[in-house]
Amino acid sequence: LIAEIFSCLLDQNRWQPWEYQYLFVVFIFIVNTNRQNLVTAAFILILASTYFYSGFGKLNAGFLQAIWTKMLLEQFLKVPPHIAVQHWLHYSGYVVGSIELIGGVGLLFPKTQKAAAWVLILMHLFVLVFIGPLGLKYNRIVWPWNVAMILYLYVLFIRNDQIAISFK
Q: How many other CB atoms are found less than 10 A from the CB of residue 126?
């Protein structure tokens, strides 16, 4: 953990969301080696926070213009530009961030965890198709992170029964 933090101080390009997430997870495992329930609860909180923050970060004009309209609609789905900029289609991109944000909140409550996990798994699968080798072949560094997030969601929420978050 110390070596990774030190290397991050030497290279600001390492400070990416997946880097924060992995540093937090490693820290939680180091500090709570004998308290499995606390590790699980903290890991769920990290996942929920990651999705909430990521979804909230998509609720802006920059995401709508650069990612939703240009990359997804025009480049990936081949929607003609004159159609992609129509208000109803352009602003429907806010749904993407809202779903991710709500999915993150859904991970915090036992009754909504499975549904939220499935929605988020489908989102990651779509992201992998969209930016992966079958799509735009964009930003390779996040491909493994998306796969890891699918595995985390599956192992924590789909394979297991409802998990109540307890910090005891």
A: 14
